[in-house]
Amino acid sequence: MRIHTGEKPFSCEECGRCFTWKTSCDAHIRLHTREKPFSCKECGRCFTQKAHSTAHMRIHTGEKPFSCEECGRCFTRKGIFNAHMRIHTGEKPFSCEECGRCFTQKTSCDAHMRIHTGEKPFSCKECGRCFTQKTSCDAHMRLHTGEKPFSTHGNSHRKIVVDVLPTNAVSLFEEKVSLRKKTFCEKFHTGKKKHFFSVPQNETFHTNYYV
Could you tell me which residue ranges the C2H2-type domain spans (predicted)? Predict the structure, then answer.
């Protein structure tokens, strides 16, 4: 009945937040006390809520009980499954209060909001530079560490992101990749650039290539 009446008789003494059910209140209080009574039998990792422990256990068991009826992809967590389903439905329930732009995931909306607020919660431990997104901070950190995530066995592989390319030009692009490798070697030895490559833009697709 409390769902209908809106009654929330259980409150947190730390922050004053109120809850409909005592179990929800108890779980919330553990955020303040940092108590983690639920542990994983496989690796010993501990959690504040039993639901989180149950979801974590599926990493060890490989169980993926949530499946997408559209594409058949399976997931260990319901939250991730719900976010995936929005790709098919096109639903974007999270909107920016400043500009109205909508997103399928709350994390994406929160990251976008920092553009308006100017908040930069991710900082570089080396130089102190701050960033709005963790991915940008991680990419910056590689400047200090010298890490090259697109390198394999000592051979540098540069990631080419192809945003616009005709679907009927895949083979042409693959020829271009091979050609660029050859051209690079020739240019290195002769100092001359011999080849240029262009493709008309008709239908599009998105993919990544490494050269």
Answer: 10-37, 38-65, 66-93, 94-121, 122-149
- Domains of the chain, with CATH numbers? 2-61 (3.30.160.60), 64-147 (3.30.160.60), 156-210 (no CATH)
What is the C-alpha separation between 39 and 199, in angstroms, rounded? Answer: 56
**Average pLDDT of the segment spanning 167-190:** 50
Taking the complete model, does pTM exceed 0.85, yes or no? Answer: no
pLDDT tens sequence across 70-94: 999 999 988 889 989 999 999 999 9
What is the rounded distance in angstroms from the CA atom of residue 132 to the CA atom of residue 110?
Answer: 10
Q: How far is the first Cα of the chain from the last one, in angstroms, to the nearest whole number?
A: 62
How many residues would you count in the chain?
211
Torsion of CA 65, 69, 74, 77, to 10 degrees: -60
